[in-house]
Amino acid sequence: MKRQFVHFLTKMRGQGVSPLKVSKKGAFLGFIGGFIVIGILALFTSISSVVWVMAPFGASCVLAFVVWDAPLSQPRNIIGGHVVSTAVGLVISHLMGDSILSLALGVGLAISLMHLTRTTHPPAGADPIVVIMAGSSWSFLFSPVLIGAVVVVAIALIINNLDRERIYPKFWY
Predict the structure, then answer these.
(1) Among residues 170, 106, 159, which one has the least CA distance to residue 132?
(2) Three-state secondary structure call for residue 24
């Protein structure tokens, strides 16, 4: 038993250094992409009575513009992950309201369903929390979620492919 516990703890040391590559061009494209996406969504919010931006989109921008070639950064994952997770949050919210259990269940179910639908997108794991705590209506699924995720992907398609060394997306389905 003690040996198993020691083995369990030693696995937490890790095995090397981060494989992430740092470049000035990557940092610049990340800045430009995030600036444009959030700027557009914030502008739409300011000129309409509809909320177009939510915090998880900032995290989606990190993946879409800096770790653009990762499987979890692809259009299917950005759009699908946000839609699946928000739908879960809305169902839980409307069935259970805002509670500790509904928040935990919403995030747990969203993670499971994103995995089962091959739409895993880590920032979308926060969507049920946003939806449940705000008591959002079903329209939230369309705006800001679907439209915002499509804006992230549309700008990622443009910005990432302006770089001759990038091919985005790596896959659609």
Answers:
(1) 106
(2) helix
The runs of H, that is alpha helices, within the chain are 2-10, 24-47, 56-65, 75-96, 100-116, 127-134, 147-162
CA-based max dimension of the chain: 62
On the CB side of 125, CA atoms within 13 Å amount to 11
69 touches 168 (CB < 8 A): yes
Q: Alpha-carbon torsion 114, 104, 91, 156, what sign?
A: negative
The tally of CA atoms less than 13 A away on the side-chain side of residue 134 is 17
Q: How far apart are CA 159 and CA 48, in angstroms?
A: 26
Per-residue pLDDT tens over the stretch 103-149: 999 999 999 999 999 999 999 999 999 999 999 999 999 999 999 99
Q: Length of the chain, please?
A: 173
Report the alpha-carbon angle 144-132-42, nearest 5.
Answer: 25
102 by Cβ neighbours in 10 Å (0-12 / 13-18 / 19+) ranks as buried
User: Where do the structural domains in the chain lie, given as residue ranges?
Assistant: 25-162
- Residue 101's SS3 state is helix
Statement: the pTM of the whole predicted model exceeds 0.90: yes
